[in-house]
Amino acid sequence: MRLRVLGCSGSIGGQQNRTTSFLLDDDILIDAGTGVGDLSLAELTLIDHIFVTHSHLDHVNSIAFFLDSVGALRPKPVTVYAMGLTIEILKKNLFNWDIWPDFTQIPTPEQPWLRYEEIEVGKVIALDGRKITVLPAIHTVPAVGYQLDSGKASLVFTGDTGPNDALWSVVNRIGNLKFLIIETAFSDKDRRIAELSKHLCPSMLGEELAKLERPAEVYITHLKPAEIELTMQEIDELSGKLRPRLLQNNHVFEF
To answer: How many angstroms separate the Cα of 37 from the Cα of each of 114, 148, 152?
Structure first.
């Protein structure tokens, strides 16, 4: 499996700051933030599946533009995998004919550009020998993370989450864990905001990583553009055996 980082910033501003999206092989998106916009039309037409962690705009906004660009060029609908409540939010607040068309009805309900598949924590989706397992997340809206398992190795993406004991009880049972991508959205001076918004800051990240019982390469995502240096400095000062690294656009994971 090959995972390419299209976007991993908490917001926009500058060429490196694209919001969350990862391209798995050629045909799967994990979230669909602004980073999707850097793909060519040819690359976009190959995408058959989108796995959504949650409904916040920085993770879903490019679904709308993606379908508008290539829906008519594809022979079959794109499948969006999400929790039931997340699907309802997308239907009510985005693909509602007021903000954007409902692509489950275009060009016809029988042959749409978009279809939804409901998922839940613990569900395993098998796609051409690749296993994607839905992991628990704790956020201000219904949210999940994902384990991507090639058989040889696994990558875990936490999605947006605050402190999350349930996640570690699952991750610590992944025998082939190789990579962990975990968010840290705020610096420590904004710990109270992190707590209220159910994100992490460096001190909270340290508390979470202390629960990880397996070796893994750890990468940090979802930093605010104006506080990247400060947040990473605070992360670098954390004690413990893990040395988290800053995730950047176009980083490629092979596993």
So the answer is: 18, 23, 31
Please give the Cα distance from 51 to 22 (Å, whole number): 10
Cis peptide before 107 (omega within 30 of 0): yes
pLDDT at 52: 98
Tens digit of pLDDT for each residue in 64-90?
A: 999 999 999 999 999 999 999 999 999
pLDDT of residue 36: 98
The pLDDT, as a whole number, for residue 125 is: 98
The Cα–Cα gap between 231 and 246 comes to: 10
Q: How far is CA 14 from the centre of its chain?
A: 21
For the chain, which domains are there? Answer: 2-254 (3.60.15.10)
Model confidence pLDDT, tens digit, residues 83-114: 999 999 999 999 999 999 999 999 999 999 99
Q: Does residue 221 contact residue 7 with C-beta atoms inside 8 Å?
A: no
Q: Residue for token digits 């290539």? A: 70
Which parts of the chain have pLDDT scores under 70? none
